[in-house]
Design a protein that fits this description.
single chain; alpha/beta; Beta-Lactamase; Alpha-Beta Plaits; 4 domains; five-stranded antiparallel sheet; 24 strands; 42% helix; rod-shaped; binds magnesium ion
């Protein structure tokens, strides 16, 4: 194969220019396209003298002299058919005879690169060409305005090492990257498109200033990843952080910190106070926890703190205690309000390997902590998994339970201890789920409060119980008292209106109704509580403090509340031999305040006899009856005793 045929094989456009005669003497097929020539003959016939100025002519002749031994590569503008095309040309002198001046011209860039580069020359992009060793060859005006071209090579520009760059080019002809670099003393973001040009392995770099977009992106990312209220990471930011930690296999503890009874603060002191509490807690966590703890707000009143485990790390107990103390200090700036927190902890990688499960496990442990009372912490343990499944099933099922009539009211008798007469009943909720079986109220009331369904469920049970008890009034001719539990969450502004509507609708006499509230109302704004309880009381409705002695009762306030009775919590009765002193003190206090007392949870003859020492008490518990359905309740001897005997005669007569 002769040399001409070899050149013909080249994809690179190549031609031999006869400098003395202003003609192309030979060209390969690729060159035809570049020169916009239909065929070789027409190209060879072109007289290029008209396009070549005297200066250009001299330049070409100089080039011919310069590149007799060494090739020269420079940018050159050709004007085929008067269309300017910028080409990166390599010249070599291939003159054979003395008077010949023949230059072999090879367009190092392909036609599309040439076109693109021409475009770039007039665009806002910075365009540069580097040789295979990374040395600067050429750059457009825009580039020269930003960089000192005397002192730059490819690796300086990209801020990567030659080794790193060749690694990125593995199996690729073109790569792109975004890099933060310093130009003109300014920190900028650039996008780089780097193409390796064959066969010379030159690098064509097109870069664009994307600082504005990057800054915007960072602003958006900051907004998307941070909680607007507290400024700390939100759940998306947290998820990103956790994913990174899991990816690099860094062991860590995940603490889920939940503010106790936060809904009560929001409902009763207003959302802006609730917000201030959250901001203050976030501020304290950031200020008092070590800086490598990642503090985030997972949502609502839940904070998640991610603590990397290091050789000198503190124990889960010590960290939890510290956080509980941080939260518990009175908040001077918010009317010295005091809140407490419950904490659940999970561990990566021991408990779970990915963020979602870790959070769920910490949440489960946190719930266990809540059961132990405020200011507790619990570490996740594997056996809690079953409870998680049940809890999420409860959350899910509760939504449809009301619509599907799965909730059942049950009634537990309340008796006069001295006479053993039925004087009333407490309405309790039970949930017969086709998938979960019977779900106890304490299991689902918490989930109902969390999911915001408590108001709806509370209204439903109150209505049902009023209808039922009204019916029993008619059956027995006795003014049996009805006790209904009201969650502190329900005790909002709308509650009184709802209450009036239910009494009107059911025709139930207000003076036979007792509302049972737990001591959690003492965590509310006490002035508002008193106002609402007075409004309830003004309607003739009684108020009872349920589960007395287990929660937050403040003796400073109890005499100010318009309440009628106390229910001594079942935990005291079940341990009566040890708690009798407390029971006696409670009874003494209640009698001084003129409050009636219900002994809750009487299960044995012994407990009953112990309580019978105190006259005038009411009682409730398994000893008398378990909570019963309407049918079962009506079968109870306690209830049967109240039915007028004439009814039986009527039935007998009817049967005959
Ligand atoms: Mg109760």
């Amino acid at each position: 194969m002769n040399s001409e045929r070899i050149l013909e094989q080249l994809v690179t456009p190549a031609w031999i220019y006869d400098v003395a005669n202003y003609r192309i003497k030979w060209a390969n097929n690729s060159a035809l396209q570049l020169w916009s020539a239909p065929n070789k003959e027409s190209l060879y016939q072109r007289d290029l003298s008209a396009d070549i100025t005297e200066v250009t002519d001299k330049h070409l002749r100089q080039l011919a002299q310069d590149c007799t031994t060494e090739k020269t590569t420079i940018w050159w503008t050709l004007y085929p058919n008067n269309q300017p095309k910028q080409v990166y040309l390599r010249f070599s002198n291939v003159s054979q005879r003395e008077n010949d001046i023949l230059l072999l011209c090879e367009a190092v860039l392909y036609k599309d690169e040439v076109d693109r580069d021409t475009a770039f020359a007039h665009s806002n992009s910075l365009t540069t060409l580097f040789d295979a060793s990374g040395q600067f060859i050429s750059g457009n005006l825009k580039f020269k305005q930003q960089y000192d071209v005397q002192d730059i090579d490819l690796y300086d520009l990209l801020e990567v090492s030659p080794r790193e760059l060749s690694k990125r080019f593995e199996n690729h002809i073109e790569i792109s990257m975004e890099q933060q670099v310093i130009t003109n003393g300014r920190l900028c973001w650039f996008s780089f498109q780097i193409k390796r040009l064959l066969p010379e392995l030159h690098y064509l770099v097109v870069q664009e200033d994307i600082t504005k977009r990057k800054t915007q992106e960072q602003t958006y990312k900051h907004l998307a990843y941070h909680d607007q209220l507290t400024g700390i990471l939100n759940r998306y930011g947290l998820n990103d952080h956790l994913t990174q930690m899991c990816k690099i296999r860094q062991p860590f503890h995940l603490f889920l910190l939940d503010i106790d009874a936060f809904k009560l603060i929001n409902n009763n002191l207003g959302h802006s106070t609730g917000d201030s509490v959250l901001v203050e807690i976030a501020r304290r966590l950031l200020q008092y926890l070590p800086s490598d703890y990642q503090v985030s707000r997972f949502g609502g009143d839940e904070f998640i703190i991610v603590v990397p485990i290091k050789p000198d790390s503190q124990s889960v107990e010590a960290i939890s205690q510290l956080m509980i103390e941080i939260v518990a200090k009175p908040m001077e700036s918010i009317d010295s309000i005091q809140v407490s927190a419950s904490i659940g902890a999970a561990n990566f990688p021991n408990d779970a390997q990915e963020p979602k499960s870790l959070i769920m496990y910490a949440d489960t442990a946190m719930y266990k902590a809540k059961e132990r009372g405020s200011k507790s912490y619990v570490r996740f343990a594997k056996q809690m998994s079953l409870e998680i499944q049940r809890r999420s099933a409860i959350q899910l099922g509760l939504k449809s339970a009301l619509e599907l009539n799965e909730l059942v009211p049950l009634y537990q008798p309340i008796v006069d201890m001295t006479t053993n007469q039925l004087i009333g009943m407490e309405a309790l909720l039970s949930w017969d789920s086709p998938t979960l079986g019977r779900v106890a109220p304490q299991e689902f009331v918490d989930e109902a409060e969390r999911s915001g369904m408590m108001n709806e469920i509370g209204q439903w049970i109150l209505t049902q119980a009023c209808i039922q008890c009204h019916d029993w009034h008619l059956q027995t001719g006795k003014q049996l008292r009805l006790s209904v539990n009201v969650s502190a969450i329900q005790l909002n502004d709308k509650f009184i209106t709802t209450l009036d509507a239910i009494l009107k609708e059911t025709g139930f006499p207000a003076e036979c109704l007792t509302l049972e509230l737990t001591e959690s109302i003492f965590m509310l704004n006490i002035k508002q509580v008193i106002k609402r309880l007075k409004a309830i009381s003004a309607r003739g409705i009684s108020v009872c403090i349920d589960d007395f002695g287990t929660g937050y009762s403040s003796l400073a306030y109890i005499h100010k509340l318009p309440i009628d009775s106390l229910k001594i919590d079942r935990s005291f009765i079940s341990d009566i031999d040890n708690t009798i002193v407390v029971i006696e003190a409670t009874i003494a206090m209640a009698s001084k305040l003129g409050l009636k007392i219900v002994a809750e949870g009487i299960e044995t003859q012994h407990q009953r006899e112990m309580m019978l020492r105190y006259p005038g008490l009411m009682a409730q518990g398994f000893y008398y009856s378990r909570p019963a359905s309407v049918v079962d309740f009506e079968r109870l001897p306690l209830f049967q005793k109240l039915l007028p005997p004439t009814d039986i005669n009527k039935i007998l007569n009817f049967k005959v």
